[in-house]
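input
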Amino acid sequence: MQRHFRTTVLASAAAAFLSFGAATVQAEDIPANDGLNATYWVQNAVEYKANAYALYQLAMVRLDQALADKSWTAALEQTGDYQSKPPAVILDIDETVLDNSPYQAWIVEKDKYYSSKTWTPFVESQTSRVIPGSLEFTKYAKSKGVKVIYVSNRKAHEEDATRGNLKKFGYPVDEDTDVVLVRGEKEEWKSSNKTPRREAVAANYRVLLQLGDNLGDFTDENVGGSPSERLETYKKYQAMWGKQWIMFANPTYGSWEGAAINNNWKASSSEKRAMKHAIMDEWEGPK
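output
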């Protein structure tokens, strides 16, 4: 009886959800989209929010440890006598500081795909949201005298809108120092590889932490490689994860997907899906 009652209630709730407003949404009218679960999770799951918040709490603990240890650095690009340099942290922006799930939801709802022609207008709308814990962390770092530097693969023509979106929420964005380092801002920064920008930061600061949602936010080694090559890079730097390097979950997009499809972004959705299925480890099933 209890199970029947629960099933009836859930069915009624689902029916009400699909028929709110003047129009009725038919479930069969909604096209399948591989990004639905991931985007829903980022926007609505408390598990995602708690995970991001907890990682930023960890980052504050690691920041204090790094400040107390002059030999501590998070940048592989850090060389020479860096111990006496002023401290800084490097953060990626998208899906690390700012939540762009409304853009991803638009992709899902309209059955579209990423394109600079639609991404730039979204950036200019300055409607990206706050990743849980990110604002508290950046303000905490600033209060400790740590320079907060954002290294993003947003493009140079999107920098002003990006700064505006950050400042709207109160993120530390210096006016006297360039702390938003975007792709193409300088001739040597044209590539999506972030090594040259990390080198520029490491030349002037002791980098205490790096925070991001993609392998390339920490090292460019095997970013575009195969899943097995990327796994080797993960293992090589395993001692740094959760200490100097803080990685955030992003199931909506990233270089991990490129690795799964041999970076063949021109493949059809069904072809991409087939390539992902081919490399998954599958249980044999019940005997």
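quick obs: DSSP finds eleven helices and seven strands in the chain.
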